[in-house]
């Protein structure tokens, strides 16, 4: 009876949230729900953790669903749904004891929910973009390929509150990986009842601190406090509003109007100006984030390594970093970020790092001439870039860099909505493309696996090198972390000289955060859960008519 009563109260609260979101909030009375207002940098396509592959969507998802493990504000890995765990001597079997918790509709969350979720993400029908992240689970790749039934996946429920994972190889990073949304439980009963519509506000069932109550595409999402979450009484905010803000000017207007508490991006070239305009708001820290540009090596002319290397050589990373980008960025000549753990070896870098710009351009021209290009056979290609952050300012610089190789190199640039660009990347529908990778967990494999030929959609240019694949497989079987790191370095060196990608810069995280908020901590993976945040002055805040459907 208690669960039913609380679930009813949650439904009533949801109705209130939708009303406030639609009509611009109340008059700021004492009983008005407190709201945290977060800007996210692109439109949300999905909140299904098995269908998402977007960092900005994870801001919403991870406020609603908690996995076996979770994180503190500084991203220390701590128990989530798991209460304790044991590992077999060979490192292949992990057994988790679960806390006795419930879904937001009062149904118990059990080990079977995790079994269902791990099987679902490998279901070929789901076609998850992130399924390969969990290929370390025994038989996952075969299940995903339809070669084995889902029952053969290396997960099982020993009892209602004991969940076991069997791996293909030892994974020293597993606990960190289990904070990632691909490993979250999903409610079997809701998914089977509502199908793809289970994530809609009227149907969604979650186990985390907040539950979706309102979603209008291109505008905002609103989540309400989940009263059945174990720490609900300690939450400072009764609801969280997420605004899909791609325009930096719109972000600044909202801050000036007092209508925004956090935004997950800003124009790095204006850092000093923003620090003066919004004192205390600018937050940066070195990140596990590499911007890298992909060549579509599955099709001409980028199936020729000489073409790929020539274009990589011509890019003036130093000028871009020093004159265009956010202070704190550094030029990248390797793929794995410098702050990455479990990589304590001399890091490989591209061979041209110490060459002068003149020598780089001369070699680039020579390579293209060797590949058959010249006045009578010009090289023409398209570079697509993201519409957000500093990327639109970098694109014309890159275009000029490439055109400096020779008059017969014709680079065309095309700005793409960030969501559209990543969809094209996953479909390998590009020639040269901008993109970035933010670590899902703190281990080199999270970057290096992206170029494995078996990775699928996130191997954007369909790079295929059996020697590279074999080195990653060897590393996966190696339990000694020093030896494992050395194998990773060998693999990265091989890949870098093959130029399926060209690393461009290592980023700092960039957020704008109201200095009156407490509970915020910088971390290299740029993950920040709303559950830890409070308003220092305990202020009441309402949504405004600018955010409303109707007055």
Would you kindly provide a brief summary of this structure?
This protein is of the alpha+beta class.
Give a description of the structure.
The strands form 5 sheets. Strands 1, 10, 11, 12, 13, 14, 15, 16, 17, 18, 19 and 20 form a 12-stranded mixed beta sheet that branches. Strands 4-5-9-8 form a 4-stranded antiparallel beta sheet, covered by helices on one side. Strands 2-3 form a two-stranded antiparallel sheet. Strand 4 (82-87) and strand 5 form a beta hairpin. Helix 15 (466-476) runs antiparallel to helix 16 (481-496). The longest helix has 22 residues, at 2-23. The chain has 16 helices and 22 strands. The chain has helices at residues 2-23, 55-64, 111-121, 140-144, 174-177, 188-194, 248-256, 271-277, 305-314, 317-324, 357-370, 391-403, 418-426, 445-448, 466-476, 481-496; strands at residues 35-40, 69-71, 77-79, 82-87, 93-98, 101-102, 108-109, 155-159, 162-166, 210-216, 220-225, 239-244, 262-263, 282-295, 330-331, 379-386, 409-416, 432-433, 436-438, 501-513, 517-518, 534-535.
